[in-house]
Write a structure and sequence with these properties.
Length: 892
């Protein structure tokens, strides 16, 4: 059951083709002609049969035509009939090579495919290529050369361009997949397949749009956890929305949100085709960087300085050799060479000197990547130096990138570099840019492994009170909360706010001000006025009652004159923040059409619309993500000691961000929010003003369906006893459990490992460990049993550690209604009821997610596991595809 459900589509053993009548080529479509030529000439080892949609015969005759994959390249009017035939001959997958199919016909084709259980790539796609299998099931032209990169493109023209470029660049592919408009098998499903494809080492995606953000994020996270993913997104929208009711909605654009989503998924985004091609070159190389330190080796100062400038511009680090290594290298170079920072070998450097510099960089851990720049000066043998790079490359152990400048004099040398798999660029800036993008992959892995809970470990918020407040506002057919309501909602989540009281007359305002103590601030209160300062609706530092009275009267008169249409509730009176040296910051929430809620942070105050200083992050947040959100903005620099003011209390600011994350997770009705400004100083933080917009939400509170990323399900944690009286915790697995899971597998007996993995392996591979520990709680669940252990060191000190003694998991099947389970128990804990408890716990989770059946394969000679399955009322069935297994099924 480990075989991917799209294997029939992308790794077929037999193919049937519907491309028109072979003896009437003039009636074939242009795609059919290209397809048949490529299928017949590429050497695919599987069986290929050509069929007609008018084929007749008995059911037995039809069944004999069955194949894994059907390829349809017919006129639009014949597509539905052809797909019906494909269904009758029981093909598992199909491709429709076509263009110009409208949404109505596409929907009809999707329904036919769904009715027959066919995984359909298309319509309006150009097919795919699998070079290692010599399979060209496309109309994209010649078969690409084999390699480790998979490219998934929603544009056939771009896929064709990449193939043409790669033929001269030495770049090969494991798969080239064209996804056109209206395809049934979408980019998320393809990413799922490529994440597990052993021939694919890295993935490049060209996107124009996505259908389901949560499913896309789920698949992208799974793929990026297994291998590097580079994304080029077209159709970037202008920032802001004319319909937004807050600063957040106006200043946070969809493109910034897409950037935040990709980073959180662990993928890397490029912004141009040039960058895409550059990244593809580097991904095709032998190694990927594990840091951002780039060493520059050159035979000329000018190009090296340009590269160093690019290093600084992209936020990389110029790698420096340790002093001992630099001293030793200097003895092998010309006296005119410099090894202080840039390794400038001099204009007359030969191949041996370049070789020595490369070895010095390769042998130190202070270097993450090496860029070799060569200027074709008179008398220099560029080919010999290129061959030196080719000879050294297998032993370097880190990215080796070249920049052979010029054209005619270095053409042959570039061929040597291409053939040896060394990425080569024409300019230093392009080479540094390429290293920058591939190095971002490992940086973004930190974000990928953040699995925060929807609620922090802080004091519990008043969720019921917050929901009642929102429901009362919506019941009044309002969407915008007043300032007092907004602050009440923030207070329900323990966010500190200034005390605020509404005054409906000048007299009330004076009484309120006297109670609050001076100085005070007065603000107009109207849901119709988004920006109070625009209508002179904010006055600060009022020091006496007469000032309050005069300010109230003047403000009402001015606002009424400037906004006669606005409904004015009165004027709020509140204390000044009491933070004369505080920094004014902004925290906002906006809701993206695709990705749902997004949290933004940056410089605040009245200049917020002009100061484009903001960062964005998808919820939920944890402390690491909150700190990163702050550090990404330029205004983070003023949070330290700043012009005589003491450093601010960053902890207080981080706690507010965590509380805002709680609000977003717990309240799906929350659509937009401004906290502007939040003032923070050395003593803490306080919210001075807030504006919140709510609306009815389809998602139920507590199920988190409104979030693009499923939070860690902390509500699934329970404690249970063992038969010996000790206790253990059952909780969902998270990425930090990787080492404990590996230790569990290492400690198993060979028989237990074979029963679980049907393999004699002694430990999990890095890819398996990543797959098992970074899971998407929306479509799978893994529960671990955590057992506390105490040990005494040689000094008599007691240390308590934790270990995993059991794992149960399920993965939802493609039908979204059933799931497949697995179970693993540490050998010394067998017979203590742990297996039953872990299975019952995972069954409860599957049932709560609305799944109908749970099933799994058990080896026929695993008598203990089969006995457990019977005790849990599973049906034990034979498994047709392999008699060595039994299929265990239970209705939920």
């Amino acid at each position: 059951m480990d075989k991917h459900y799209l294997s029939a589509l992308f790794s077929p053993r037999s193919i049937v083709v519907f491309a028109g009548e072979p003896d009437l080529p003039e009636q074939q479509t242009s795609m059919a002609k290209v397809l048949t030529e490529q299928l017949n000439n590429t050497g695919f080892k599987g069986n290929i049969a050509y069929l007609s949609i008018s084929m007749t015969g008995t059911l037995g005759d039809l069944a004999s035509s069955r194949a894994d994959l059907a390829i349809i390249a017919l006129p639009t009017t014949q597509l539905s009939d052809a797909l019906e035939v494909v269904g009758r001959i029981q093909c598992k997958a199909a491709i429709i090579l076509s263009h110009g199919v409208d949404a109505t016909l596409a929907n009809t084709l999707h329904q036919i495919a769904k009715q027959h259980g066919i995984y359909l790539l298309g319509p309006n796609c150009m097919g795919f290529q699998r070079p290692k299998d010599l399979l060209n099931a496309s109309a994209l032209g010649r078969l690409a050369r084999p390699g480790g990169i998979a490219i998934v493109s929603q544009s056939a023209a771009l896929a064709s361009s990449v193939l043409d470029w790669s033929s001269k660049s030495g770049v090969g592919f494991s798969a080239v997949i064209s996804l056109g408009a209206n395809t049934a098998v979408d980019v998320a499903q393809v990413l799922d397949y490529l994440a597990e494809d052993r021939h694919t080492q890295s993935i490049i995606v060209y996107l124009e749009g996505i259908r389901n953000a949560r499913r896309f994020m789920s698949s992208l996270r799974a793929a990026a956890n297994a291998k590097p993913v580079i994304v080029l997104k077209a159709g970037r929208k202008p920032e802001g929305s004319s319909m937004a009711l807050t600063h957040s909605g106006n200043i946070v654009g969809s493109d910034a949100i897409f950037d935040a989503a990709l980073q959180r998924a662990g993928a890397v985004r490029v912004h141009s085709l040039v960058q895409l091609f550059a990244a593809a070159k580097c991904l095709s190389a032998r190694y990927l960087p594990v840091g951002r330190r780039l060493a520059i080796i050159s035979n000329g100062g000018g190009p090296a300085v340009l590269a160093a400038d690019a290093v600084n511009e992209f936020g990389l680090q110029l790698a420096l050799l340790p002093s001992a290594a630099a001293t030793q290298l200097a003895t092998q170079l010309s006296p005119l060479a410099s090894v202080k920072d840039i390794l400038d070998l001099g204009q007359e450097a030969d191949a041996e000197q370049f070789r020595a510099a490369i070895k010095a960089c390769a042998q130190t851990s202070d270097v993450d990547g090496i860029l070799v720049i060569l200027s074709p000066t008179p008398g220099i043998d560029t080919g010999t130096i290129a061959q030196a790079l080719a000879d050294e490359q297998p032993g370097v152990g880190k990215p080796l990138i070249s920049c052979w400048m010029g054209d005619e004099q270095v053409a042959d040398a570039r061929t040597i570099l291409y053939r040896s798999g060394i990425p080569s660029f024409r300019t230093p800036e392009a080479a540094v840019d390429a290293f920058h993008h591939i190095s971002l992959f490992h940086q973004n892995q930190q974000l990928l492994r953040q699995v925060p809970t929807p609620l922090t470990q802080l004091a519990k918020p008043d969720l019921e009170g917050a929901r009642i407040l929102i429901e009362s506002v919506l019941a009044e057919r309002r969407k915008i909360l007043t300032e007092m309501e907004s602050k009440a909602l923030l207070s329900a989540f323990h966010i500190p706010v200034t005390k605020t009281i509404l005054a409906r007359s000048a007299t009330e305002a004076m009484l309120v001000a006297n109670q609050l103590t001076y100085p005070v601030a007065l603000k107009i209160d109207s849901a119709d006025i988004t920006h109070k300062s625009d209508v002179q609706g904010v006055v600060l530092d009022v020091h006496n009652a007469a000032g309050v009275r005069d300010t109230w009267q003047d403000m009402l008169a001015t606002v009424t004159r400037l906004r006669p249409d606005a409904k004015i509730n009165g004027v709020t009176v509140q204390n000044m923040s009491g933070k004369p040296y505080g920094r004014e910051l902004f925290i906002g929430v906006t809701t993206d059409e695709l990705f749902g809620p997004v949290i933004s942070f940056g410089a605040g105050g009245v200049m917020i619309d002009l100061i484009t200083d903001r960062s964005t992050e998808l919820p939920p947040l944890n402390l690491f993500l909150a700190q990163r959100l702050i550090d990404k903005v330029r205004s983070a620099e003023m949070l330290g000691a700043w012009r005589g003011a003491a450093p601010v209390n960053r902890d207080a600011l981080e706690q507010i961000l965590l509380r805002v994350s709680e609000m977003v997770c717990a309240l799906p009705q929350l659509r937009e929010m401004d906290i502007n400004p939040v003032i923070v100083d050395e003593y803490g933080a306080v919210v001075v003003d807030a504006r919140i917009v709510v609306d009815h939400a389809p998602a139920e509170p507590g199920n988190y369906q409104h979030l693009a990323i499923s939070p860690y399900p902390s509500d699934k944690e329970t404690e249970w006893p063992l038969r010996d009286g000790s206790r253990y915790i059952v909780r969902p697995l998270h990425p930090h459990d990787a080492e404990m899971l590996q230790e569990l597998v290492r400690g198993l007996s060979p028989e237990s490992r074979y029963f679980r993995f049907v393999s004699s392996m002694r430990e999990l591979s890095d890819r398996m460990l990543a797959k098992f520990t970074l899971i998407d709680y929306d479509r799978e669940m893994a529960l671990v049993a955590i057992y506390p252990q105490r040990s005494v060191d040689e000094h008599g000190n007691i240390h308590e550690t934790e270990r995993i003694i059991g794992v149960s998991r399920y993965v939802t099947n493609p039908d979204k209604s059933t799931c497949e389970f697995s179970l693993l128990i540490a050998d010394e804990f067998n017979g203590q009821g742990l297996g039953s408890r872990m299975m019952l716990s995972i069954i409860d989770v599957a049932r709560s997610r609305g799944l109908s059946h749970i099933e799994g394969l058990v080896l026929s000679n695993n008598s203990g596991m089969l006995r457990l399955m019977r005790s849990l009322e599973f049906k034990i069935l034979s498994y047709e595809e392999d008699p060595d297994f039994r299929l265990c099924v239970k209705s939920l």
